[in-house]
Amino acid sequence: MGTLIQRYEKNLTGRDYAVGDIHGHFSRLQQAIEMVGFNPDKDRLFSVGDLVDRGPEAEQALDWLALPWFHAVRGNHEDYAIRHSLAGRVDIENYRVNGGGWFLDMPSARQKQFGLVFNELPYAMEIETKNGLVGMLHADCPVRDWNFLLEALGTEAARTRAIWSRERLQRLDETAVRNIHAVVVGHTPIQEVIALGNTVHIDTGGWLKEGHFTLLDLESI
Known about the structure:
Blueprint: E1 5-8, E2 16-19, H1 26-35, E3 44-47, H2 61-65, E4 70-72, H3 76-87, H4 92-104, H5 108-118, E5 124-129, E6 132-136, H6 149-152, H7 156-164, H8 167-171, E7 182-185, E8 194-196, E9 199-201, E10 215-217
């Protein structure tokens, strides 16, 4: 396991964007960033995770992760790959039903290559902006106070909540996460961006036929 929380200094030359779940649709993502005039020499793109499964271009995930301007937290679908390739602890049929067939059908050595890279992804990121520190996780913040997140992520229960929970969205919980300007998450596809308290849900289903990728300018929240 890599760093639990990765910190990024303020971008002094360009813009910082966050994008929702990608699920193997990198061509669509490329089109989306081109539409906002993304400049890879100055701008950065932060992903809420779930780079893989369900879409036809999941194998491109490693190429994107090698780009100096693209950064991601781990999602539950990266967790599937990690647990299967490095620990053999996945319900195979469940994984396949949830889009993991492309991974299960690869040679084990190639699976391990993905697993090792995904296992270095942090559970959370912190990005400095002009308005304050923006946090990012895949699904939900497992603590009410961001200052306690690092300690909490030392437990399996908190890590599981960070990549699997839909509780905040299901309850429309507007309780703010303290000591952080905003928290950006994905995981649950929605039609439009929703802010609950200071938690912003941005998975607008760019991987779905009827969805679209939201590129959230972190300076705008």
